[in-house]
Specification:
The structure is a homodimer.
Chain A: H1 4-12, E1 17-19, H2 22-28, E2 42-45, H3 49-62, E3 66-69, E4 86-89, E5 96-100, E6 105-109, H4 114-123, H5 140-146, H6 153-156, E7 163-170, E8 175-178, H7 191-195, E9 203-211, E10 219-226, H8 229-242, E11 245-252, H9 253-261, E12 274-281, H10 285-300, E13 306-309, H11 313-324, H12 326-330, E14 336-341, H13 347-361, E15 366-372, E16 377-383, H14 390-410, H15 435-448
Parallel strand pairs in A: 2-4, 3-4
Antiparallel strand pairs in A: 1-2, 5-6, 6-9, 7-8, 7-9, 10-12, 10-13, 11-12, 11-15, 14-16, 15-16
Chain lengths: ~450, ~450
């Protein structure tokens, strides 16, 4: 620890844990992206808000860039430290601080994992409803920084809906208690909302008051095979009108082939282009009857080719695996991933156009589509041909992303649905946000972080 | 129209409707507050976004202050033009621009009334769930500017939850299309959220994409009499756990006496200190049975003294009138109003302390409490003694508000639940927001409105 800046930091915060071993620098210096080599100055693991403030003040004085760090499960490079930054990991600040039954608020430190939040909520007979695959590793602070969504947004919304209050160390070192768990508070700008989704560029989230809700009612799971994209939209409208949907996920035949080849159980014939896993409230026989009637309506209209209703929890898990196993089944092929969003109604035209474009420009690449119909959120995985070198593939994919961004812009979409902009999407930000908006964002960033020490180079330069 | 600045404005926007008659200046120059004399320069009634942009650009160049104006039903003076400002009324921009069934989005101009939005949603078989008494006069633009709440926040949240996209002319004249109706969009700061609740100080909201939802299920209404404040909180917890609450409103015996004296029908004996009107989903006999059991539990525990379940829609209306008629019943007495919020769990201690404080300091004044328990939102109406002059009364009330603000601060509350800060609450903003937060808000305001032409003097100086 010879860097004199670190010596000074240690002098200011004597009990601060600092890591400088190479293995730690690599471990904490990157997220799930692999395009940048981790090269942080060091890793700080503060144990208190006071230590976070000491770090931020020191960084301002010494002009050291900070990378706030949660579970680093993002796919946009938002938590990458590749240019000598100090990683500020919240992982030691992972406690539940309190619970109010009357307010249904769970107060936590930012470094707590999503799974630990689920368990704490459950221990009080309540639900924290945001959920997704990385739950065991990702942290609430990171969820807040990207406004994470997941598989039940259609029912519960994104992280934003569940934040009653935030404790933040702003880029200028000031401690902010934003909204303090109030339901109603019309006292000027809601800085809490500004912080949510700001990717660590305005402040370091150190704590949160999370709203909890009633546990979900019993649900039933259905798998559907559909003959075309328009049918997918019709069935979504039909089911949304008849049932209380908790999830409505789609994937293509290409995705299904991969997940079956990876060991998932064949629950349905794989001869249709689109598949849906949907989950809906099933409190009683009446609800189940309604679901069956909706299904039959869909078959009669020619929108549904085939379907399975899970008869047990284990069968529901089998159906869900067809959707949830896709990412893992593709991983060995090192796919190029994009996570985009559109208005729900804009999806069919966008998909038609994009699929035709990709087939014309990149016939040699396999493209796997899946995602959340109810949120307009599409995941695109492009697989490299077996004989293509990684560098050539990445170069092609950058061009694919440019095509994607241009097409999205024409259809009013967003280049990032839930992983943020970070480094990966930075070149494409203008496809989603206007010049005027970006100028305002730059201005806001300067207000919160006048010396530009918080996650510089992420979101925009 | 001799003011040369107005001549120039007319030259730039030849078809802009401008009003300068005294009656118009008075009508458009104030909201429901009556503490400031309206004295605008003129009233502009733009008919298009281009005209709004022309006004904002002109105001920047000529350094004319603008007061964006909706239905002017606010109680914080946010829409008062008392210092030669140009009132920018959106009332002519009141059209429904579009509807998407797939996205469940209703696109409107900002000057549309809340009631017209309700009707448009209903015509598509859907619901825009924000609702309150001023629905016939207030506009969506104003609702957004204050993040209006109302009587069903416990079930549906505030206006913020229902804004899928905003079209805004920023203080610098730039047109912003914020979020464009996307469900998921993690592409930097959510400026839409920043705009909501900003009281016309960052931009002029000219349009919105409103989220719609399923119509509410059939509901049942119950009136309860309760022996003390703690019982009120116990019954709230009990009912929330057992029923799907749509509303849980309380008022005191003092409020009940006023509303009965004003002609409301006596549905219950007025000998208990607290009353509740609650509404909950009642889809079938099972739900009604559950409600009855919850009621009986409350009686057995000694938390409920008496109760009535409405047996018809007209009886439900009779019960609701006891709560909704309070404001009107107090109006002839010209009460001094405060609209505050706390965490739900903080309400009993706050109410005890505040009631004792008021009884000690102002024994001569009658204080009427009512509000939304489920949102922690309390309305306080202080009535002047019959023999007190208005000026003396106002002076006393300013002191009451100071006591209130100090007490709120200790209990972590907010000085404004749903009417904003405007002019009325400006002296008390620091009771709710820290110095550091206010400094950041000032900075943000400067980013959006560098010349300070948007609603200057509101929120903070």
């Amino acid at each position: 620890m010879t860097d004199p800046r670190l010596t000074e930091l240690t002098a200011r915060a004597p009990s601060l844990r600092l890591l400088t071993e190479l293995a730690d620098l690599i471990h904490y210096g990157r997220d799930w992206t692999r395009r940048w080599g981790p090269a942080p100055l060091a890793v700080a693991l503060p144990g208190s808000i006071e230590e976070v403030q000491a770090i931020v003040r020191w960084a301002n004085e010494r002009q050291v860039a900070l990378v706030p760090s949660g579970g680093r499960t993002g796919l946009s490079g938002g938590a990458v430290a590749a240019r000598g930054e100090l990683v500020l990991s919240l992982e030691r600040m992972n406690r539940v601080l309190g619970f109010s039954d009357t307010d249904r608020l769970l107060e936590v430190e930012a470094g707590i994992t999503l799974q630990a939040v689920h368990e704490a909520a459950r221990s009080h007979g309540l639900l924290y409803p945001v959920d997704f695959g990385a739950r065991g590793s990702c942290t609430i602070g990171g969820n807040i920084a990207t406004n994470a969504g997941g598989i039940r947004v259609i029912r519960y919304g994104t992280t934003r809906e569940w934040i009653g209050g935030l404790t933040v160390v702003a880029g200028n070192g000031e401690l902010l208690e934003l909204n303090r768990g109030l339901v109603k508070n019309s006292s000027g700008y809601d800085l809490r909302q500004l912080m949510i989704g700001s990717e660590g560029t305005l402040g370091v989230v150190v704590g949160a008051q999370l709203k909890l809700t009633d546990p979900p009612p019993p649900a039933q799971t259905m798998l559907l095979a559909l003959p075309h994209m328009d049918a997918l939209m019709k069935v979504f409208a039909l089911f949304r009108a008849q049932l209380k949907l908790q999830a409505f996920e789609f994937f293509t035949d290409v995705a299904l082939r991969h997940v079956l080849a990876h060991g998932a159980q064949r629950a349905i014939d794989a001869d249709q282009p689109y598949y849906v896993v949907t989950e809906y409230d099933a409190l009683d026989d009446g609800d189940e009857q309604t679901a069956l009637l909706a299904f039959e309506d869909g078959v009669r209209e020619g929108w549904i080719s085939d379907g399975v209703i899970a008869q047990s929890e284990s069968q529901a898990a089998t159906l869900w695996r067809l959707r949830e196993g896709i990412t893992e089944s593709l991983a060995p092929r090192k796919p190029y991933k994009n996570d985009i969003a559109l208005r729900i109604g804009a999806m069919p035209a966008f998909l038609h156009e994009m699929q035709a474009l990709l087939a014309r420009e990149y016939p040699q690449m396999e493209v796997v589509w899946f995602g959340h119909i109810g949120d307009g959120n599409l995941h695109i995985n492009v697989l490299p041909p077996e004989d293509m070198q990684q560098a050539e593939f990445i170069a092609h994919c950058e061009r694919v992303t440019r095509l994607l961004a241009d097409t999205l812009q024409r259809h009013g979409g967003s280049i990032s649905a839930e992983h943020g902009i970070g480094l990966v999407k930075k070149p494409y930000l203008e496809s989603t946000r206007s010049e005027a908006e970006i100028a305002l964002m730059r201005g806001v960033r300067t207000v919160f972080d006048p010396n530009g020490i918080l996650n510089p180079g992420k979101l925009f330069d």
